Amino acid sequence: MIQAVAEQVESEQSRPNAVLARLAMIISSHTVVDLFAAIVAPLIGVLQIRCDLTANQAAGLIGIGSLSSGLSQPISAWLSDRLDSRLFGAMGLAIAAICLSSIGYADNFSTLVVIFVIGMIGVGIFHPIAASTVGQLSEQLNKRKRSIGISIFFVAGMLGGILGSLISRTIAVKGDAGFDALRFAVVPALVFAGALHLMIRRVPHRHHQHHLIRFEDGEVSKRWWMIAVLYVASSLRFTVNMALLYLFVRWAEAHAVIAFPTYQADQIAAQGGKIAATANALLVLGMAIGGLVAGTLVRQGREKWPQVVIPLIFAPLIALFGKASLGMGYALAVCAGIAFAAMIPATLSLAQRLLPHRTSLASAIMLGGAWMVAAAGPLLAEYCLGTLNLGLPRTFGLTAALLGVSGLVCLLLDGKLLRKTAEVTSD
After folding, report:
1. Which of 213, 275, 321, 375 has its CA 20 to 30 A from that of 38?
2. Which residues make Cβ contacts (< 8 Å) with residue 406, sequence separation at least 6?
3. What residue ranges define each of the domains in the chain, with the CATH number in brackets?
4. Chain mean pLDDT for the chain
């Protein structure tokens, strides 16, 4: 009797309309959570004045956010798989909304760190559960569409990043009034969190045929080697991402100083915040374009050479950023987003196929594990600018070189095993 009821519930949940509704819910939730996550970085200059931060504290704040978000992901993913629960997805969204909408309450470094870190922990908790859920639901619709589903999920997050950057631009102009208005955004976000939990709580954690998959002798170690290679490449690319977020602020302030030579520090920070928010929105737009195009066109099992070639092609454009005018810089920001983010959805899909019995953990390694390393990005950028006094052009050049290395690392991927993962999950 109980088994019959369970089978009926599972059958209802696997109907195409029900699957599409769950996909729409979690994809739109990604927009919401990434909106909150994107608000703080463009406002670093404003917060530096508002909370009396040093340059190292400002750079460190972005890194701390990345570290806390990254560290929370493998922990929440392990608990999610262990407890067979999707609760952490909705919980992460709620925590992120409550804290990051309250960033205006901070008036000193300590308070700012506490609010921001807890908020970014919420962002981190959301992502691996959400990414693995999208992968599972996409395969219920079509066994070969995991990468496309994750690409759409990725683009939805980028839309949130663009909206968050535009909100940051408004806050930079309005000051206290903008921070006060932000607090009301928590209400619809909490409604989303509740709806998300109801929609995805029964989605399975593992590939539907994971118990039938058998690995050849030595294949498990090869799969973990591939995970390690992808992890290194992802860590380098996310480090580039985080370094650029900080460099955009300093690049924007340099342009503001030239355009408004009589402005005081707080006015320069506000003008720089507007410019940095625009550049960041365009960066995220490039990420969305790259992720959607690559996720759609790159076939499952054929990811190796795009992983190598795309960063190598686009890296030189990042090196041009240091001497770019505003208009050229905005165009280069789109290219930079394509450069380091185009293969993120394909990487997530591949990692989930390499570890079909631990999809949340695979997602957490590629996202959270990489973000922990990426926390060094802003600090390294400030070290190059401040301590080494390399200037913006050379610091952007080093950032571009780091992206190129991420492509070369992917030469170590085993193309034959990549193709096998596609065949196994398409049976």
Report:
1. 321
2. 232, 233, 234, 236, 237, 240, 311, 340
3. 15-203+218-424 (1.20.1250.20)
4. 87
